[in-house]
Design goal:
By secondary structure, the protein is mainly α. It has two domains: about 70 residues, no CATH class; about 240 residues, Orthogonal Bundle (MetI-like fold), CATH 1.10.3720.10. It has 16 helices and no strands. The longest helix is centred in the middle third of the chain and has 39 residues. The chain starts with a helix and ends with a helix.
């Protein structure tokens, strides 16, 4: 198993290189880069108009007329665009090898510091949303499988279908309307991860304030993954319950609980474990953007979106690097979870 883990860790390096290279080419081809953004600001043109334009702002172009060519050259030098694309790529890769993501073009800070500042918000949302989803969905899915066709199974399935059909951002808006001042109920805050007086609170007060702010955004994130995982768990257990080894185990006199958790659980959970990496990636990165925007949470998703709109390339590539690295590590952890559920699985032997 150690050899398999080492091989997977070594494969992360070329995977990161390929992903960065592909995205570098795509980003360079997109119109409205940081130089064009800076020139637009000098001329009082909206950045959004520049980003959506197909005209490149360079020396001699219509959009850059009236500006001193020396000033434009200085702007290009400031953002590193006085070098060719291969040179910029090589410099970026050398910096990334030392975990130096450079400085933000427009935020006036190191990208590493920005990521470290925003990452706790995204991790808080993803960690608690994933934990709650699995703690609720797996027991519920098992119970639905055991009581398949009962009244409990029917009404929980109805609730799950409604939850699955409702987008997370729409459910977030519904929670805000109902529980955050949209009606007579004003139970939860809708801005930030902590209150303004957080530093003046006691330890228990800080913990309570932190979770108080997490209730609505985490609930919004849980709703979609909760439905998917519950159905997956139920179907996995239903599939295993009908197999011959279950009939044999019951014929030997084993009780329902012994059969369910001693035999069925291990095999059925393999399908559930297989979905862990994708669930984590979806909750941590894909699902957090709209939730962070709706609840004014200053996390990685929101920062990455704003950087992409502003063509802040160091922040875009730094965020991409972190997202990709986390995604690859999460998939490796998912493989290790296989062996925890079923020790008979040996990736070391399969890899030969």
């Amino acid at each position: 198993m150690t050899g398999y883990i080492l091989r997977r860790l070594l494969l992360i390096i070329p995977t990161l290189l390929v992903i960065l290279l592909v995205n570098f080419v795509i980003v360079q081809a997109a119109p409205g880069g940081p130089v064009e953004q800076a020139i637009a600001r000098l001329q009082g043109i909206g950045a959004g108009a520049v980003a959506g334009s197909t005209e490149t702002l360079h020396v001699g172009s219509r959009a850059s007329r009236g500006l001193d060519p020396k000033l434009i050259k200085e702007i290009e030098h400031q953002y590193g665009f006085d070098k060719s694309a291969p040179e910029r790529l090589w410099l970026m890769l050398k910096q990334y090898a030392m975990l130096d993501f450079g400085n933000s073009f427009f935020r006036g800070a190191k990208v590493t510091d920005l990521i470290l500042d925003k990452l706790p918000v995204t991790i808080s949302l993803g960690l608690w949303a994933t934990l709650i989803t699995y703690l609720v969905s797996i027991p519920l899915g098992i119970r639905k499988a055991v009581r398949h066709g009962s009244l409990f199974d029917v009404w929980t399935s109805t609730a799950i279908i409604i939850g699955y059909a409702m987008p997370a951002f729409l459910f977030a808006l519904l929670l805000i309307v109902v529980f955050a001042g949209g009606t007579s109920l004003n139970w939860f805050p809708v801005r930030g991860l902590v209150s303004e007086n957080f530093q003046q609170l006691s330890l228990l007060g800080k913990i309570a304030d932190y979770f108080w702010h997490l209730v609505l955004p985490v609930t919004s994130l849980v709703i979609g993954g909760f439905a998917t995982l519950t159905i997956l768990t139920k179907n996995a257990f239903l599939n295993e319950i009908t197999r011959q080894y279950v009939v044999t185990a019951r014929a030997k006199g084993l009780g329902d609980q012994q059969v369910l958790y001693g035999h069925v659980f291990r095999n059925a959970m393999l399908l559930v474990v297989a979905g862990i990496p994708q669930a984590l990636i979806s909750v941590f990165f894909a699902g957090s953007l709209l939730i962070e925007v709706i609840f004014s949470l200053d996390g990685m998703g929101r920062m990455s979106y704003e950087a992409a709109v502003a063509r802040d390339y160091p922040v875009v590539f730094g965020s991409l690097f972190i997202f990709t690295l986390f995604g690859l590590l999460i998939r490796l952890i998912g493989d290790l979870c296989y062996t925890m559920v079923d020790p008979r699985i040996d990736f070391e032997t399969r890899g030969r």
